[in-house]
Inverse folding.
């Protein structure tokens, strides 16, 4: 399965890197392909290293203004013109999406993916990997949106909140019918 992971390119502490590495190893051992922003820095590098070391493939989609920090040994690297094209390519090349910890770029990617799913533009499973409770506030906000009528589909049809990588991958494999 080609699994797109949206996440930070920042250097983060063990609270985030250890679970990210564990999830990456699960992806690689499972024979999955990581589809990601292509960066050779921060948490993006941690995940790419883990997937590659465990035998998985790497498909990166960088963007022109970040091409200098693209991973040189990815199995495939595409350089998009801009962030909008990058997001479209990441979605196109993936069978499922995982949203890990990140900043405004990750939040932008997450909300666009969920908005497209809400409007039926894709049906791929989306998991929000809630490492160390990072997305507790966002989950609360989404629940409020659903409770107050702002979501035309149930929240559970849009996104699955996973506490850890094992739960995230199990949900994705079940959604894809992988035994």
């Amino acid at each position: 399965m080609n699994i797109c992971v949206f996440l930070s390119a920042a250097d983060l502490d063990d609270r985030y890197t250890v679970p990210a590495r564990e999830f990456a190893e699960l992806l690689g051992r499972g024979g999955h392909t990581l589809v990601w922003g292509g960066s050779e820095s921060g948490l993006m590098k941690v995940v790419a290293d883990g997937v590659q070391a465990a035998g998985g493939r790497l498909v990166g989609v960088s963007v022109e203004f970040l091409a200098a920090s693209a991973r040189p040994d990815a199995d495939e690297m595409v350089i998009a013109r801009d962030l909008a094209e990058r997001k479209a390519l990441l979605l196109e090349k993936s069978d499922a999406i995982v949203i890990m910890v990140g900043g405004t770029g990750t939040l932008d990617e997450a909300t666009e993916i969920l908005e497209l799913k809400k409007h039926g533009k894709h049906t791929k499973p989306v998991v929000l990997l809630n490492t160390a409770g990072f997305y507790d506030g966002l989950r609360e906000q989404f629940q409020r949106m659903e409770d107050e009528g702002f979501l035309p589909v149930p929240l559970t049809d849009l996104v699955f909140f996973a506490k850890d990588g094992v739960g995230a991958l199990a949900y994705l494999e079940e959604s894809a019918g992988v035994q």
Notes: The beta strands are 2-6, 33-36, 57-63, 76-80, 96-99, 126-129, 160-162. The chain has a mean pLDDT of 95.
